[in-house]
Design a protein that fits this description.
Layout lengths: L1 H6 L1 H66 L3 E5 L5 E4 L1 H7 L3 H4 L4 H7 L9 E3 L2 E11 L5 E10 L1 H47 L5 H27 L7 E4 H11 L1 H4 L4 E7 L5 E4 L1 H17 L5 E10 L8 E8 L27 H11 L3 E7 L3 E9 L7 H12 L21
Parallel strand pairs: 7-9
Antiparallel strand pairs: 1-2, 1-5, 3-4, 4-5, 6-8, 9-10, 10-12, 11-12
Helix pairs in contact: 6-7, 8-10, 10-11
């Protein structure tokens, strides 16, 4: 072998050169492989980091979506989301409750058709849907780049605001009418006393069996009737001052029903009384609250000429209603209902739909409840009946009755001596709208 290598030095040199070249190539390949391996490991790390960042972003986006969905569903404002074709793509619970449909039923329907089906329109004016007053507005919807991508229709429940506006307008009307009524009543009452005097003198001087004496008696009776009406007018115009005490709820309601028995017996009326076990007493002036109940019961009976169901219920009410603990006393009938056109005027004096009414019954009811620092709400559906709900402060619900009693007694005790006491007997002389 050594002879061969000695004999061919060129081949040996060539072979050594080939080995050296191969070793260099192998080393270069090893270095390239190591660099590639390091690069792949780095890319794997970058990819893992990117995947983790993407996963976190997806989780954040999902959490944000859930959060925004929660906000949307928690809004008391109803929301309809429309696409560029005016088709509903999303709704929240408040809108579904107002429209009486689920999100599935609303999706892919044109908003104009949904609104028309509910008797609504895109208008700034207040609109009524069942017992709720709402305002409807629309807002353009834009994407991140600012381009229009549909719009939102917003339903705002303004029932309480509407009621407050009505109450303010009613108080302004009542104040103006009360001043006018007081002046007119006094002016009429003075000459009426003279007529009564002369009628009495005629009765005394005329023969007992003469027709003229009977005429004089009829004049006297008519004058007395007018005088009672004027007394009610003056009673209505005076500020009501009262002292309130705790009164047993069951007894107060039972006595009110007894006072209206004469009207109830004439009709086929089924009376139901539902008293909460949580409410045993009512913080009120018992005589005036009886007058309120008698008026409302008589109204309910008169609204059911063919008979029906009369329900009187007493339940605790949340503090949101009056801003303090309260109870809700409701008189509900199954009668003819109140025309929506008349609903805003039923507490106005002299407004009545009855041929023989004078329009003072509910006006006095409103004044009495207002003097109790309460509120009266009316819900009515034509052909189905009416519910009159009286909300009264009731401090015993949260255990603060003693504190409330002290405050209210101090507030009203000074007026006790000159307090105006509306007699329950006047209820029958008042108008029952």
């Amino acid at each position: 072998m050594s002879n061969v290598t000695t004999e061919h030095p060129e081949e040996r040199e060539l072979l050594q050169t080939a080995f050296r070249t191969f070793d260099e190539a192998a080393q270069t390949l090893q270095r390239s492989y190591s660099a590639l391996t390091a690069r792949v490991e780095h890319m794997d790390l970058e990819l893992a980091q990117s995947n983790e960042a993407l996963r976190r972003q997806l989780c954040d986006n999902e959490a944000m979506r859930v959060h925004l969905d929660g906000i949307l569903e928690s809004l008391s404002t109803g929301v309809l989301v429309l696409d560029d074709c005016e088709t509903i793509s999303r709704s929240n619970r408040a809108a579904e409750a107002l429209l009486g449909a689920t999100d599935t039923e609303l999706r892919n329907r044109r908003a104009s058709d949904v609104l028309a089906g509910a008797g609504l329109s895109l208008s700034d004016r207040p609109q009524r849907i069942r017992q709720t007053v709402i305002s409807i507005s629309q807002v353009p919807l834009s994407n991140d780049s600012g381009a229009r991508s549909g719009r939102l229709i917003l339903f705002q429940d303004i029932t309480r605001i509407y009621q407050l506006e009505e109450q303010l307008q009613r108080k302004e009307r009542l104040a103006a009418m009360g001043e006018l009524i007081g002046r007119i009543a006094h002016e009429i009452r003075n000459p009426l006393g003279s007529v009564e005097l002369f009628a009495s003198m005629l009765q005394r001087d005329l023969d007992e069996h003469s027709s003229a004496r009977r005429y004089a008696q009829q004049i006297s009776q008519a004058v007395q009737l007018m005088d009672r009406l004027l007394a009610n007018l003056l009673l209505y115009t005076r500020p009501i001052r009262l002292t309130r005490e705790w009164h047993a709820a069951e007894r107060l309601i039972e006595e009110s029903i007894k006072l209206a028995t004469h009207a109830i017996q004439k009709m086929s009326v089924d009376i139901r009384v539902d008293l909460s076990r949580e409410v045993h007493v009512i913080w009120c002036h018992d005589g005036q609250l009886k007058q309120v109940l008698v008026n409302l019961i008589l109204n309910a009976v008169q609204a059911m000429p063919n008979g029906g169901a009369l329900e009187i219920s007493l339940q605790p009410e949340s503090s949101d209603a009056l801003g303090l603990p309260a109870v809700r006393l409701t008189v509900r009938d199954s009668g003819i209902g109140i025309d929506p056109a008349h609903r805003s005027r039923i507490f106005d004096p002299f407004f009545t739909t009855k041929d023989e009414g004078t329009g003072l019954g509910l006006a006095i009811v409103y004044s009495i409840i207002d003097a109790h620092q309460g509120r009266i709400d009316v819900e009515s559906t034509i052909g189905q009946g009416t519910a009159c709900s009286i909300l009264l402060p009731h401090p015993s619900i949260d255990g603060s009755s003693s504190e409330m009693h002290t405050h209210t007694k101090a507030e009203f005790e000074l007026n006790d001596a000159g307090s105006v006491k509306h007699e329950v007997a006047l209820a029958e002389e008042c108008s029952h709208e």
